[in-house]
Amino acid sequence: MARPAALEAGTLTELKSILGRHLVTDADVVASYSQDRATFLTPGVAAVVAMPSSTEEVSAVVAVCARDGVPVVPRGAGSGLAGGANAVDGCVVLSTQRMNRVIEIDPNNLTAVVQPGVINADVKKAVGEYGLEYPPDPSSFEFCSIGGNIATNAGGLCCVRYGVTRDYVLGLEVVLGDGSVLRTGRRTLKGVAGYDLTALIVGSEGTLGVVTEATLRLRPKSHVPSTLVAFFGSVHDAGAAVAAVRRTLVPSLLELMDQRTVRAVEEWKHLGLDTNAAAMVLAQSDTGSESPADVARMVELCEAEGATGAVGARDEFESRMLVQARRLAIPAIERRGSWLLNDVGVPCARVPDLVERVEEIAAATRIETFTFGHAGDGNMHPTMVFDPTDPSARDRTQQAHDEIVDAALDLGGTITGEHGVGTLKRSHLARELGAGSIDLFGKIKESFDPAGILNPGKAF
């Protein structure tokens, strides 16, 4: 294992004076904080891990690093999938895991104030005690942090009806690249005074500042959903059904899994899924008394598009089991070997075209590929499994990944729907946005981070 890069003695002494035992120098521990879940990527060698517990400590750490030119890589729970939290050589990994408090819940104004290290599921549980909910719902909600969700503008299974993280962040407290503290946004639902810096920071992947506090928008808890599962003889028919549902209703969840993904989940958990079908569509409605009628209508729409079977869940237990089948897609694939997950978005009606292109690319590159995702908003996750000991397989996996990104762009889509650019997709960004945008990004970053120390080499 590579030894952590050494900091200058004066820098190390100052950081120790700020954090004491919460400045970690042990090589094994530092290495364990140096990479997110994107194991296809090789991280740099960090110098130390800083674990502040307050905005003041974050500010002090960043100020020292800015003065001495030390890179700072912010890190939440490390659940990212694009290398956004991967260390760079000689950096301070700034972990927010100790900043994990729900500071305030205001049920009258439907807001919560939280620190960045709090886990998404813990926010849901805390506000649920007030009959409220925080909708953003990544599949990793049980172990991803709010700060990481903000960094990537995370989405999840509920986006088709309820939107993404940016839609629920009203204001932020952020430490900028010189150590100064900025407050953005407001607690009111409406407000157009000045530029929307909150929206700018959400999705900026730690390149503009370190989020130390977030004011979140809540909503009344939704009704218990009714669930539909439908199986299809072709991915094209499944995609046509998704489009028909989207034209007719506003479901609270609308997901698609191809045959390989269904089989991976079924072989692991034995849930009774139809492994002979080419694709499975999962949908929910949470409109209360109207939900059963919504599901009945979705059954009709699926059958009209050639579903080989379409039924509503019999009870809440079966409904939860079906949703869990979708959430188990990544761990089921992970059991099969090393994997590289893609995250692309296309206009919803082009999802069948994307899946067909993925199948063609998988065949041409000879890489086993599993496709699943949020068909209701066009955000799909083709995931490749490969032998990491075979250099040819690794090269072909990279080729397949890049060709899938290109396919999404060809279909009028985006290189990332919710996982961020990180280092994984940095080379593709200019094709989507153009050189002018990249140039402007650099000017904006310089305003927030004049020394260029915050998460260098990420996003653009």
Structure characterization notes:
The chain has 460 residues and is α+β, with helices and mostly antiparallel strands. It contains 16 helices and 21 strands. The chain has a 7-stranded antiparallel sheet with strand order 15-12-14-13-19-20-17, sandwiched between helices. A 5-stranded antiparallel sheet has the order 5-6-10-8-9. A 4-stranded mixed sheet has the order 1-2-4-3. The longest helix has 20 residues, at 391-410. The chain is globular. The relative contact order is 0.12. The mean pLDDT is 96.
Spatial order of strands in the largest sheet: 15-12-14-13-19-20-17
Helical proportion?
Answer: 25-40%
Helix/strand class: alpha+beta
Uncertain spans, ≥5 residues at pLDDT below 50? Answer: none
Mean pLDDT: 96
Helix count equals: 16
* Rg from alpha-carbon coordinates: 22 Å
- Give a count of the beta strands, DSSP E runs of length 2 or more: 21
Shape, please?
Answer: globular
Major β-sheet profile:
7 strands, antiparallel
Q: What is the first-to-last residue Cα distance?
A: 29 Å
Strand content: 15-25%
